[in-house]
Amino acid sequence: MAHAALSSIRAAKRTEGITYAVRDIVSLAQEVAKTGKEMLYLNIGDPNKFDFETPAHLIEAVHAAMRHNHNGYSPSSGILSGVEAVRAEARSNGITSILDVFLTSGGSEAIEICLTALVDRGENVLIPYPGYPLYEAVLAKLEAKAKPYFLDEDNGWQPDLDDIRRKIDSKTRALVLINPNNPTGAVYTEQTLRGLLKIAREHGLVVFSDEIYDKMILDPKKHLSTASLDPDAPVITLNGLSKGFLAPGWRIGWGVVSGRQGEMKDYVGAINRILRARLCANHPMQHAVKPALEGQTAFLTETRKKLQRRRDITFEMLNAEGISCVRPEAAFYAFPKLDIPMADEAFVKGLIRETGVVAVHGSGFGEKPGTKHLRVVYLPPEEQLRKAYASLLAYLKKNRK
Asked: Where does residue 6 rank: exposed (0-12), middle (13-18), buried (19+ CB within 10 A)?
């Protein structure tokens, strides 16, 4: 019996713009690891890969939930105890005009659901450069445009408000801000946040305020929730268990919608239609939300102490000939600038092959044209960090000649 000639299955064009530099670099690192070279990983922000552990009281809460057979579907917006705990924390952070709260499969799903409910094909969203690459990937899938605005390296990586104003057009629907910022570790000032909100209100934009690192402020500064500064502004506040509570693999995040009821009614309805269609987030893990937000936080003090020491090593060592680094104020990332003759992606790939030090090229997070950076994660123990940075600096010296 004759068979039809085999032909390749065409992939959807919407996937062509989807990249994720943090994970994409891993395949090269895996190839190099197979040669037997010692690898020093500074690429993925996963505390549990190093000497950080999920708090025991959260593990016990999930274990108890499983033993009590909370293993079926939950309500689409999340279990009541988790939703109410998130609502209470949002209020304690000064957010007064809460319209909706929902739990999701990590902060990533909250981002995807809220963008999907808002943005049509051909519209655009302002995203920070540098910034978390997921926003750009989701917008590519939606056949919408990610329109970058620049953070100002000479001003502690604060958003450039004038650049934001220049980028807005009739098809702009939302403004994304990541505070504290990944990949720079910057914490935005109240003046900056008020400026961002003013721009958003003037142009009818929804603000996506990604605050996933708010528990990891390393300097004596206070984190401000964006929505607390203007109860009328349409804001989605995003957070979760992954970073501040050292449970990234549990995939539990949340969104808090605030603003004016009449203005946001249709949008909130669209978010909830998507929430219902995807059923629910991981049910047993949702039982960790209440004890996380209302329980003991001694582990956070110790976590921040370790990160402060590692941040200081990073800042000290990555300010040298050919490299300069703005001091991170939060999270566990730094985004040093490179003075090199080649593209930063080529530099990072060579670094991995020759030294086994795995970082991520700055262009994978977005950067001003003509600048070159790399992102490092300073989660590894201090001696590993010193060893990795020494190898990085030696490779940099050799490749600047």
From this structure: exposed
The enclosing domain of 183 has a CATH number of 3.40.640.10
CA distance 262 to 243: 34
- The Cα–Cα gap between 94 and 269 comes to 24
φ, ψ for residue 19, nearest 5 deg: -135, 160
> What was the pLDDT predicted at 220?
85
72 & 200 share domain: yes
Same domain assignment for residues 112 and 254: yes
Beta bridge partners of 373: 337
For residues 34 and 84, state if they share a domain. Answer: no
C-beta pairs of 269-274 under 8 Å, 24+ apart in sequence: 270/117, 270/118, 271/100, 271/102, 271/113, 271/114, 271/117, 272/76, 272/77, 272/100, 272/102, 273/117, 274/113, 274/116, 274/117
What stretches in the chain show pLDDT beneath 70?
1-6, 19-23, 401
Let me know whether 220 and 190 are in one domain. yes
CB neighbour list of residue 266: distance below 8 Å, 6 or more residues apart: none
What is the separation of C-alpha 30 from the centre of its chain, rounded to a whole number of angstroms? 24
Residue-by-residue DSSP string for 224-292: --GGGG-TTS-EEEEEESTTTTT-GGG-EEEEEEES-HHHHHHHHHHHHHHHHHT--S-HHHHTTHHHH
> What is the pTM assigned to this prediction?
0.93
Cβ neighbours for 69, distance < 8 A, ≥ 6 positions apart = none
Residue 1 in any domain: the answer is: no
Indicate whether 339 belongs to any domain: yes
What pLDDT does 254 receive?
Answer: 98
How many angstroms separate the CA atoms of 69 and 92, rounded? Answer: 32
Task: Calculate the CA dihedral of residues 249, 286, 216, 60 and round it to 10 degrees.
Answer: -80
Tally the domains of the chain.
Answer: 2
CATH of the domain at 320: 3.90.1150.10
Domain assignment of residue 40, given as a range: 18-45+298-399
| Residue 178 φ then ψ, to 5° | -115, 110
